Amino acid sequence: MADRNRRDEEFERRNAEARMEFLLSMRRRGIRDVKVLRALEQVPREIFVEAEHGGIAYADQALPIDCGQTISQPFVVATMTEALDVEPAHKVLEIGTGSGYQAAVLGMLAKSVVTIERYRTLADLASARLRVLGLKNVSVRVADGSFGAPDEAPFDRIMVTAAAETVPSALIDQLANNGRMIAPVGPLNGVQSLRLFTKTGGKIEHLDLMSVRFVPLVEGKAAAL
Predict the structure, then answer these.
(1) CB 26 within 8 A of CB 78
(2) Fewer beta carbons within 10 angstroms: which end of the chain, N or C?
């Protein structure tokens, strides 16, 4: 028992050091929004990765998760979150729950978050992790993300964490006036552009931020997973 306690303490110590270095690296790479950095600090990334990857949870790289999906690299999470500019009164829609890590970060910032996942396995795991963190303002749904959540629209902010050649029109329709949406746009099996959309007076404008590689946005719910 004493040996296991020492191992647990060593694991916690290393994670604390890795988290601190992770936050410093985000600052060095240009993430300046204090509330985003605080949210990243508050969400323990190690509980959102597979056990075998716990030692590299804070490495700046994407990591595999169940159902052939990935958890995005931390810098991409930070960049997308900062660009979205989430305020405490905002209602946020996320497409592609995955591990639940990005939803947890958004939940630290927003009034409410609806996150949609096509794989029930991922949705159930993410829900369990969010419960551990006590994030009652994040709701996980199993559905086709390309349709969004019309029953909850409009959304002040929308984040899409899977790539599409064009953003589904339903998501644009569900974005509130003066809202922001961020999504990877481009070829499904190549390099995409991380695109920030703004909606003003019903008109959509966009700005390309950086090159990224995301898994494709697939229509429909997964049949068995």
Answers:
(1) yes
(2) N
What's the pLDDT tens digit per position in 82-105? 999 999 999 999 999 999 999 999
pLDDT band at 175 (very low <50, low <70, confident <90, very high): very high
Distance of CA 82 to the CA centre of its chain: 12
- 154 inside domain: yes
CATH number where 121 lies: 3.40.50.150
Residue range of the domain that includes 79: 2-212
Q: Is 72 a catalytic residue?
A: yes
Could you say which of 72, 112, 127, 146 is catalytic?
72
Report the domain count for the chain: 1
Residue with tokens 């749904």: 141
Longest dimension (CA), the chain: 63
- For residues 106 and 159, give the distance between their C-alpha atoms in angstroms, rounded to a whole number: 10
Structure tokens at 84: 């979205």
